[in-house]
Amino acid sequence: MQLRYAFRLYPDAAQQAALARAFGCARVVFNDAVRAREDARKAGQAFLTAGELSRKLITEAKKTASRCWLGEVSAVVLQQSLRDAESAYRNFFASQRGTRKGPKLGSPRFKPRKDARQSIRFTANARWNITGSGRLNLPKIGAVKVKWSRTLPATPTSVTVIKDAAGRYFASFVIDTDPATDQARMPATDRTIGIDLTHFAVLSDGTKIDSPRFLRRAEKKLKKAQRELARKEKGSKNRAKARLKVARAHAEVADARREFHHQLSTRLISENQGIAVEDLSVKALARTKLAKSVHDAGWSSFIGMLEYKAERYGRTLVRIGRFTPTSQTCSTCGAVDGPKPLHVREWTCTACGTVHDRDHNAALNVKQAAGLAVSACGAPVRPGVILAQREETGSHGFPTGNRAA
């Protein structure tokens, strides 16, 4: 399984300038590849192959006056930028043919010069390394200071250097992990649990986990920062400073939410062999008056973390259908008592007379609908269960995506 571990970088002024050149060169090569493909399409010609693009846009372009500065950065960075353009086109064509899951994708677009997030990737043949003093030595950039929050479990296959909207730098390492070692970290258990996604989560054992409401708590600070940004003159240095202030405030909220998701998902995975969760339609909920609270909770990200951690540590994660009437069904006798408005938090079953807490009852029904059972050896068994698909993850302080736990 591939995981992604990310660590904060602290480049000095000269290294920041070198990284800015590398970001710019990678962006130019990507845009040149998109332009070449679009020109070929408009002329009714076949698309240039990856080899032809590499020769034309990198090797030959370095010899011209308009692109000679491409030689100032590592050639691997430029080649990986071409690979990103190729991948973008493959995903676009697969989406048009209907062979790619998810919403339809548009054709690749040019990357703007003032994009808030920038990145470059170094593969193993770029000869990057970690020095004896713990610095990350990158070709044509130098040895950059790294804040190591954990030890890498294996030798990385590549590293991506990222600059986020808040001006922070990160090194993201891709690691191939050993499944046996991962599963040994969390021994099998005989516990299973169902999760109802209300408050933040309500467990079938009766535990209620409230949403920390990170965005709501930071709204006053964000409002002030955004008001200051709106008052600054466009194009001024003060406006750039105000934009960074807003980005950092949003980054604090996102980091706190991500940390909460990781701690909770890791605890649930470590304590339970089988986990059942409802297949929540977050997009539909985001179109209601609860939209801000739904986005603040971040349920999609949380379920994604449960998926990849379940696969990594040999647990079973089961999603039940979103139309299963978990809030209408009595978990004691199975009678369906009909829909109830949201303000009804407790109800009595008309068939057996059991008094139910709405959310706890729903969590029990989620677990029962998943049909989780435990074998004599402690492993969950359920016909037709497929472990969650692989997810690429990150680590502490990473601004985007998931983190390894």
Record the SSE blueprint.
Blueprint lengths: L1 E9 L2 H30 L7 H10 L15 H23 L20 E6 L5 E2 L5 E3 L3 E6 L10 E6 L5 E8 L2 H7 L6 E5 L4 E3 L4 E2 L4 H18 L5 H35 L2 E5 L3 H4 L5 H7 L1 H14 L3 E5 L25 E3 L6 E3 H13 L2 E2 L5 E2 L24
Parallel strand pairs: 8-11, 11-12
Antiparallel strand pairs: 1-5, 1-7, 2-6, 3-4, 4-5, 6-7, 8-9, 9-10, 13-14, 15-16
Helix pairs in contact: 1-3, 2-3, 5-6, 6-9
Total strand count, please? 16
* Terminus-to-terminus distance: 14 Å
H/I helix tally: 10
Runs with pLDDT <50, length 5+?
Answer: 373-405
Percentage of residues in DSSP E strands:
15-25%
Helix/strand-derived category reads: alpha+beta
Mean pLDDT: 88
Rg over C-alpha atoms, rounded to the nearest angstrom: 25 Å
In this structure, how is the largest beta sheet organized? 7 strands, antiparallel
State the share of residues found in helices, binned by percent.
25-40%
What series of H and E elements makes up the topology? EHHHEEEEEEHEEEHHEHHHEEEHEE
Shape: elongated
Strand order of the largest sheet: 2-6-7-1-5-4-3
What does this protein look like?
The chain has 405 residues and is of the alpha+beta class. Helices cover 40% and strands 17% of the residues. The protein contains 10 helices and 16 strands. A 7-stranded antiparallel β-sheet has the order 2-6-7-1-5-4-3. Strands 10-9-8-11-12 form a 5-stranded mixed β-sheet. A two-stranded antiparallel ribbon has the order 13-14. The longest helix is centred in the middle third of the chain and has 35 residues, at 237-271. The radius of gyration is 25 Å and the shape is elongated. The two termini are 14 Å apart.
